[in-house]
Specification:
Number of domains: 2
Helix content: 40-55%
Strand order of the largest sheet: 1-5-3
Number of strands: 8
Strand content: 15-25%
Largest sheet: 3 strands, antiparallel
Shape: elongated
Structural class: alpha/beta
CATH topology of the largest domain: Aldehyde Oxidoreductase, domain 3
CATH superfamily of the largest domain: Quinolinate phosphoribosyl transferase, N-terminal domain
Length: 219
């Protein structure tokens, strides 16, 4: 089964950046007004139909603010939700919960949105095609957003420019499709070679040149 969770290192890095953005330089001034011994419990409750994603990020947000907080989950990434579904709970020091909650919710809501929209596309082509993502991701969040696509039932296209060769129209201003495929085969024989085409003649040339995949652009 394809893993739906992102790499933990990517989660830790993204959450650290988000928390620094939110609490530096002086911490949560409002939460600091609360007594340290004031405790609370909060629930993550869905407001709409959808698919969960981002659980590890929410976990990590609470952990980085206060490792003593207890987070429990009733649902995992990839699980469907409806209005009123309880996704999970957090309990512990109230000031810590309130400091971390927005970062946790931002990740949970954003990534669940990606998973939910992906699931709609997957349902629309059920049995007929595989839904792939792109590299047009939020800077710094690619691994998380691609994991959310998987949670929604989609699959990942290339994760970076070094994963495989994708010849696009801008590359073809300096070489032909045939030249591009031949050069790629000579340089990286084991790598996938994909060619973006916007007219039928290009598709024929890409196939004749031995491309592994053809991306149809506005055709």
């Amino acid at each position: 089964m394809t893993p739906v969770h992102p790499p933990i290192q990517a989660v830790q890095h993204a959450v650290r950046r988000a928390i620094e953005e939110d609490v530096l330089p002086m911490g949560d001034l409002t939460a600091a007004l609360l007594d340290d011994d004031e405790h609370g419990r909060g629930a993550f409750v869905s407001r709409a139909d959808g698919v969960v994603a981002g659980r590890l990020c929410a976990d990590e947000a609470f952990r980085q603010i206060d490792p003593s907080l207890l987070v429990t989950w009733q649902l995992d990434d990839g699980d469907p939700v409806s209005p009123g579904s309880v996704i999970g709970w957090v309990e512990g020091r109230l000031s810590s919960i309130l400091t971390a909650e927005r970062t946790a919710l931002n990740f949970l809501c954003h990534l669940s949105g990606v998973a939910t929209l992906t699931a709609k596309y997957v349902a629309a082509v059920a049995g007929g095609a595989t839904v792939l993502d792109t590299r047009k991701t939020t800077p710094g969040l690619r691994a998380l957003e691609k994991a959310a696509v998987r949670a929604g039932g989609g699959s990942n296209h290339r994760g970076s420019l070094s994963e495989f060769v994708l010849v696009k129209d801008n590359h073809l201003t300096g070489m032909s499709i045939t030249d591009a495929v031949e050069r790629a085969r000579d340089a990286w024989p084991a790598r996938t070679v994909e060619v973006e085409c916007d007219r039928l003649e290009q598709v024929k040339e890409a196939v004749a040149a031995g491309a592994d995949m053809v991306l149809l652009d506005n055709m």
